[in-house]
């Protein structure tokens, strides 16, 4: 095995971790935008615009064809529609049930992606991978320390719909990427998501931009970080596969908890610390157990 092929998985893992960090920082920046007068739907409707523009410029500068083959193109369009739908579903769930519960249900998506890949025969994995996903989810449950109350079936169904949507996008997109360039597919997905969410936002008359300087800093920062995270995440999928890439996303809520301690002086309980440790252990084990990319 060449040095390049040996290093490729670790490059993919590094990119996947960078995407998770960017997702977490994007959500933290979003809170500034919301405090500055904006709202989640407006940010969701606009945050897909920047990755679309970045990918168009990037691909054109490198002379890469923007258009996909007809079959892959239609699949990418469908994935973009699903992306818009699960984004809306998650935002709606957060408005209906406690945030920790919504995130906990939404983070079933790595397990859902793994099940889809296994049932369809698209990826082979052992019991270690399933154990790592389950352990990470259990650790996340402890880290979030969700409390009962204010739960309703509709909100939980929306959160699960979000998880099902993202799990499906991760599993199916890996088949479109194959071992090739993920950027054209990501471009299709981002463009379709941007158009659909802007339309939803316009129909509902819910465009609300920040009214303060810090609000705009948060709004722009959230959009820029999300653009990087989205592009990096799908590059990671093309390099190390969908299961490990989605599993690395469990770093996101762990980082968010750490930022809460550092920036907001929040205090973690012993149970939350144990949960964070379990997430980290599961990620390390998943990496060591799967030294080769399928």
* Total strand segments: 0
Question: Mean pLDDT, nearest integer?
Answer: 81
Strand content: under 5%
| N-C termini distance | 15 Å
- Shape descriptor: globular
Structure in words:
It contains 13 helices and no strands. The protein has helices at residues 3-35, 40-46, 49-61, 70-96, 99-106, 109-120, 127-144, 153-177, 183-204, 213-240, 242-248, 251-264, 270-289. It has 294 residues and is mainly alpha-helical. Residues 1-6 have low confidence and may be disordered.
Would you summarize the structure shown here?
This protein is an all-alpha fold and 294 residues long. It contains 13 helices and no strands.
Task: Supply the key terms.
single chain, 294 residues, mainly alpha, 13 helices, disordered N terminus
Topology:
Blueprint: H1 3-35, H2 40-46, H3 49-61, H4 70-96, H5 99-106, H6 109-120, H7 127-144, H8 153-177, H9 183-204, H10 213-240, H11 242-248, H12 251-264, H13 270-289
């Amino acid at each position: 095995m060449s040095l390049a092929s040996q290093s490729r998985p670790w490059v993919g893992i590094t990119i996947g971790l960078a995407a998770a960090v960017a997702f977490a920082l994007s959500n933290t920046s979003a809170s500034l935008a919301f405090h500055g007068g904006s709202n989640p739907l407006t940010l969701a409707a606009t945050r897909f615009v920047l990755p679309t523009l970045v990918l168009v410029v990037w691909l054109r500068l490198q002379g890469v064809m923007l258009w996909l083959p007809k079959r892959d193109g239609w699949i990418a369009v469908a994935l973009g529609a699903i992306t818009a739908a699960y984004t809306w579903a998650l935002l709606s769930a957060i408005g209906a049930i406690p945030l920790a519960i919504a995130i906990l249900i939404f983070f079933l998506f790595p397990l859902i992606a793994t099940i889809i890949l296994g049932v369809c025969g698209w990826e082979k994995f052992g019991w270690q991978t399933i154990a790592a996903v389950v352990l990470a989810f259990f650790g996340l449950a402890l880290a979030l320390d969700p409390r009962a109350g204010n739960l309703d079936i509709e909100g939980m169904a929306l959160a699960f719909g979000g998880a099902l949507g993202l799990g499906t996008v991760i599993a199916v997109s890996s088949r479109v990427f194959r071992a090739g360039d993920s950027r054209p597919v990501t471009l299709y997905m981002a463009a379709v998501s941007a158009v659909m969410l802007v339309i939803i936002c316009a129909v509902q008359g819910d465009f609300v931009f920040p009214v303060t300087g810090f609000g705009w800093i948060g709004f722009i920062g959230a959009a820029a970080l999300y653009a990087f995270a989205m592009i990096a995440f799908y590059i990671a999928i093309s390099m190390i596969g969908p299961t490990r890439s989605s599993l690395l996303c469990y770093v996101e809520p762990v980082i968010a908890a750490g930022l809460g301690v550092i920036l907001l002086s929040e205090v973690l309980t012993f149970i939350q610390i144990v949960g964070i440790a379990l997430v980290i252990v599961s990620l390390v084990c998943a990496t060591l157990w799967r030294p080769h990319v399928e």
